[in-house]
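Objective 1.3, modelling of assemblies. Example input:
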Amino acid sequence: MSIEIRNVTKRFGSFLALDDVSLQIPDGSLTAVLGPSGSGKSTLLRIVAGLEQPDAGEILLSGEEATAVSPQRRDVGFVFQHYAAFKHMTVRDNVAFALTIRKRPKQEIRDRVEELLELVQLQGFADRYPSRLSGGQRQRMALARALAAKPRVLLLDEPFGALDARVRAELRDWLRRLHEEVHVTTVFVTHDQEEAMEIADRVAVFDHGRLEQVGAPAELYDTPASEFVLRFVGDAVRLGSALVRPHEIVLRRWPSDGAVEVEIERIAVLGADARVELSDGDGDRLSARLRRDEFEDLDLTRGEIVWATASASHRDAKAQQTLR
Amino acid sequence: MGVISTFLTVIVVLPIAALVWESKRDGTHAFWQTISSPEAVGALKLTFGAALIVALTNGVLGTITAWVLVRDEFRGRSLVNAVIDLPFALPTIVAGLTLLAMYGPNSPAGIDVAFTRTAIVLALCFVTLPFVIRTVQPVLIELDMEMEEAACSLGAGRLAVFRRIVLPNLLPGILSGVVLALARALGEIGSVVLVAGSTTHTEVASVFVYNVIQDGLAAEASAVAIVLLAAAFALLLTVGALRFFVTRHERA
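Predicted structure (tokens):
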């Protein structure tokens, strides 16, 4: 099911959570909504789910106006950051909830729950209560619960935010594979740019309630539409008057047109790459990332003076202009 | 440990033992005879009946009140919240006087229920009002609202959300409150004796005990007291068992 968000505005008191946001999410896509905390991304997700009403604008689901449709009838599966597990029910009853409410036959519910528990690898846990599950297991249970009634849209609000790094990496992979299997239109909110870039086909970047840019991960990285996107998606350093990526910096032993004179402060070899910390004449620090072979050819040592330029040839000229 | 057990023995165990001994002094047969006298049976029946009505009323109204106090924003909420504790703070005899002023022979609203069974229920409701509210309120504040939102988006309507999500989580709190209210209602004397007096059909157990003691019938008094004591014990056990049952998911 496609989702269309049209000119949505939402205020909480005097705080403007969403400012005239329009966004289209194609059927079957896996979209990340990325932004710092307070950027309005969770509010947007809650509005799509019907848990929050916009002050202005509309939501279309499959091309049909759905702004006034209650959350019960939106056919949406929602996964919360803190799982929202029904703690007084067993895993089985949690997963079965949507089907129990719909008064499906017992046998059908039993079969569907089995199938879902297998999908989220919780087969042996059906009779446990959520308090006896780990965070990762609880979140997988919440996912199974959200998928039970075969929703047409799956919405995940910082789904891995409360988990530790290892489990988070595991669940990322797993969500990606799940999407390939189930193919339900999926939108997930995150503040972690790496997570967004890794999992999603499309990323929508938010800041202060505004949609800054939407596109494929590579597009955001290579042609950011604003300084905010450049800084937020991947690393950025200031070289002279321009903002560049650390790996775009080229170091030479001689001056050239537009090159900035810098002193080498520290060198760290990180496997295939090397990070070189530099400081320019004004004492501003920046770090460059060189390929290992490049780095060894230069034979740099601490305290040396070199000249830095940026090789941002692949970034389009218009974006460069707005950045300068 | 030694200090605590001595303290508990002097304060609780010895007086109870003395009471049991007092009631048995004339033998088990005499005990049953006293207990089955029409006056004693009437008083006990009335007491348990009224306490049950009051506890159940509290269970429903107290839960709703707690809900409104926690979930609804309205002007004067903190004032209402403070007033809830008034029956705790008020001496029960004063509570009885206030009720008599409002619903007695000189009622400004023209409602005179003094010396009726309705008055008993009214007085008991007044003094037990805070129990359920105060046990449900903290549970409701702690209740994860995302559970309710999750249930909504899974297709549950308001009623289903309440019945399947909210109520099961509030149940331990409601039960505790109801049992506390019940225990208090069984033993209440101050407020009841003023509004209901001790006519034959409004004499509750505690008033009965008081009256027979006045008449110098210590054995009769302690026999009825023993029944109240047994009821209190049974209540404690019941609430323990119920709590164990409704919170099984926390231990599983």
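Confidence is low (pLDDT under 50) at residues 313-318 of chain A.
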